[in-house]
Amino acid sequence: MLTTLIRKITSNHLVMSGLYKGVSGLSLFISIPILISYLGDTDYGLWVLVFALFQWVLLMDFGLASVLKTKVPILIHENRQDLLKSYLKSTYKITAYIALFLFVFFLVLIFIIDLKTFLKIPVHSSMFVKKLFVINMFFFCLNFLFNVHKSLFVAFLKGKYAEQSIAVNQILFLASLGVLILIAPNIPSEDKLMIITLLNGLSCFLVNFLYTLFFFYKEELNLKTTVKTSKEFLKEIIVLGTKYMIIQVGLLFVFSSDNYILSSVFGPKDIVPYEIVNKYFQFPIMIMLATLSPLWSMFAKNYVQNKKAVLLASFKRFNLLFIIMFLFIALISLICPFVISIWIKDKITLPSGLILYTAIATLFRVFVTFYTFFLNGIGKLNKYIILLLLSVFLKIPLSYLFIHLNFGINSVVISTVIILLIWVVFIPLECYNIIKKIPSDE
User: Fold this and answer.
1) How many whole angstroms separate alpha carbon 192 and alpha carbon 185?
2) Cα separation, 14 vs 18, whole angstroms
């Protein structure tokens, strides 16, 4: 009986995705105080800026990864195997071209802009900062290509393996970081940053490469086909992919530009309190994203099959689940100062209100994420994009307004709360309006 229960749990992609994301989050939380202690506040702030750039690059795929999660379930449902192979082959080719273009583009950009002055980096030479960004950019673009496997696992309704690969990557990096600290605790700060860059880049590449091979082996799939992707199909993919890219870049701008705004005003060292609280509250978001990730392709499949009752039932289940999430976020907000005092050995002064504002932003984001996954899954994106573009235009003016009003680093979080409040009202309404238009199940 126990064996049957374990088998049921391990075969449930929603449960296992959440579990693996929990492991990833735990590894990330353990690595943060280690990095702060090893690098110091200023160099850790610099590493955060570099890593934030990594997130930007991963989303510059013109929405190809997102289109995979929407289109592949439809092609499988229609049993168009040759077109599927052709589509995957085209995706890898286009992704490789984009990776090459991005590396050259950012290489030129990094050497044109004085990053040390722009980001108010008080230590290291300008040339070292440029070199650090270039090496990271190389690894980021390399992993950009091999990162496609995550979307493939989700598209084939095996999302737990995508989260498993992330967990393995985090654990491998954490282990290599521990070895580095043991064998080289007192090397110069520039050497520390360079070695951590290499460890992060190589571990990420190794895991992504092996899981790419694992995907094609598990699905017994190869890219050998004589069928060419039609121009009409490619055009449809590019149009949909462009929409996804606008969404991805917009989301990243709203949620990940804070570090650059704060650095340009206060400097890298002042990012640390914000980053610690932000990472602390990312845990429920990470769990939610991992749990919901397989739903993207399931929404696409159920929408194509006009399963109105199934979709409405999933909405109802989430709304009930959100009550638990609300209580969980309230609890972790109350214990946040205590946890941070244990988690981060160095004394960190948190601005008054930062925990409350971040908790509210997290609560809003968790709620709205489910409904945005539905819109992404079915490809109904026009109104969502308009709302997102308005949010992008509001983000910086709102942030600087609150900075001008002396809200300090809380300013970027308050601006996010205001934007998310608008989303919480309009996005679920749009989802229910779409559901109403689906013919009732026979």
Assistant:
1) 9
2) 6
